[in-house]
Amino acid sequence: MTGKARRFEGERRDPYRNFNFHIVIDGKVVAACRKMSALDATVSTVKFRSGDSRVPVSEVMPGQVEYQPVTLEGGLTDDDTFEKWANQLVFHEHSQGDRRNDNEFRKDVTIRVLNLDAKTVVKEYTLYRAWPSKFTAMSDLAGDGNDVIIETLELTHEGFKRQQ
């Protein structure tokens, strides 16, 4: 090599930043979100040992999959997307209280991870059949505080998948 020694050969691949993301509900970007909890799936372990087994070790098999709720936090703004959705369940504002018709309150929610340019979607995940299981309309208030008022929406869902 002539001149300066090259430290890296090939293309540099920096990890994506965790502050560039959009939450999409009903086709609308909910831009007020400042934080989202992790997407998490756990496969339970089922131990099995047949009655005629001569080995002292149990077999293990994969069991049911459990998805942890996702929590979205956003600064309180004029956008009432979280509140309207949560109120469908809190105040039974769907099919006169008939929860069997759950398609009225369950939604697929899209999470878009953006590149540093904040325009290019680099990863996209969909939460399936999500519904609000907890809603905090307003965080604590303090007369001498300097914080932003935060609303929180916890979504229970039936799985997620990365979109291509």
Q: Topology of this protein?
A:
Layout: E1 21-25, E2 28-29, E3 33-36, E4 41-48, E5 59-67, E6 70-75, H1 81-90, E7 107-114, E8 121-136, E9 150-156, E10 160-163
Antiparallel strand pairs: 1-2, 1-7, 3-6, 4-5, 6-9, 7-8, 8-9, 8-10
Number of strands: 10
SSE-based structural type: mainly beta
What composes the largest sheet? 8 strands, antiparallel
Provide the succession of SSEs.
EEEEEEHEEEE
* Oligomer class: single chain
How would you characterize this protein structure?
This protein has 1 helix and 10 strands, in the order ββββββαββββ. With 164 residues, it is mainly beta. It has a domain at 21-35 and 74-140 and 148-163. The strands form 2 sheets. Strands 1, 2, 3, 6, 7, 8, 9 and 10 form an 8-stranded antiparallel beta sheet that branches. The mean pLDDT is 85.
Quick description:
With 164 residues, the chain is mainly beta. It is 6% helix and 42% strand.
Supply the key terms:
mainly beta; 1 helix; 42% strand; extended
